[in-house]
Design goal:
50% of the residues lie in helices and 16% in strands. The relative contact order is 0.11. α4 crosses α6 and α8 packs across α9. The chain has 2 domains: 135 residues, Response regulator (Rossmann fold, 3-Layer(aba) Sandwich); 56 residues, Arc Repressor Mutant, subunit A, CATH 1.10.10.10. The chain is an alpha/beta fold and 209 residues long. The strands form 2 sheets. The protein has a 6-stranded parallel sheet, sandwiched between helices. Strands 4-5 form a two-stranded antiparallel ribbon.
């Protein structure tokens, strides 16, 4: 009989951990070997237990798991990482996969999708749900923001005026306006409010919750 797939969950919400645990315990060939409610405890357990798969939440309060993925990946032998998110912005999905995550799922993932994800990444394959794939597909062909544009967009989300952005970056207000025009064109929007909501929806900037 093959050994079960050993799974660690690093998720802050108890109700989510309980739901994941119930699904895994009812599935053949899957085994929960540890649970953690914060990133530091999760990393310690990950290094100690070396699970086959770790399910890691995207957010821990104001902290973002995207910054932690390299630590999990570098500390693993043959472990695979699945990121669990409340929503899926194309920028967050792309970055998670580029940083080494093998899968990306959302809170509304079904039990069948979760077990399929666990089996797929444990076998060395990538897994994203249909919803996540659709989100990525919608971003194909969209022009990427430059680092400066992303920085300015973050300031815009933070409520800064053109004058404040210009002062922070030591550039003229006209230069800020030029950058904003490029940002609006790339996002397909025509005003600051829509730019902010689009940036948050797509995960282009970090927003502390």
């Amino acid at each position: 009989m093959p050994l079960p797939i050993r799974i660690l969950t690093v998720v802050p919400e108890e109700i989510l951990r309980a739901g994941i645990r119930a699904i895994i315990e009812s599935a053949e060939g899957l085994q929960i070997i540890g649970e953690a409610e914060n990133e530091s405890a999760g990393l310690r357990l990950f290094r100690k237990l070396q699970p086959d798969v770790a399910i890691v939440a995207l957010r821990f309060g104001q902290a973002c798991a995207l910054d932690l993925i390299p630590e999990f990946v570098n500390g693993s032998g043959n472990s695979s990482i699945i990121v669990l998110a409340g929503h899926s912005g194309d920028a967050e999905i792309s970055k998670a996969l580029k940083l080494g995550a093998a899968g990306f799922i959302c809170y509304d993932t079904s039990a069948d999708e979760l077990t399929a994800a666990l089996r797929s990444v444990a076998a060395g394959r990538y897994f994203i749900t249909d919803r996540v794939a659709q989100t990525l597909g919608e971003s194909i062909g969209k022009e990427q923001l430059t680092r400066t544009e992303t920085n300015i967009l973050g300031m815009l989300v933070g409520g800064m005026s053109n004058k404040e952005i210009a002062f922070a970056l030591d550039i003229s207000e006209n230069t800020v306006k030029s950058h904003l025009k490029n940002i609006f064109n790339k996002l397909g929007v025509s005003d600051r409010v829509t730019a902010v909501t689009t940036a948050i929806r797509r995960g282009l900037v970090r927003v502390d919750l």
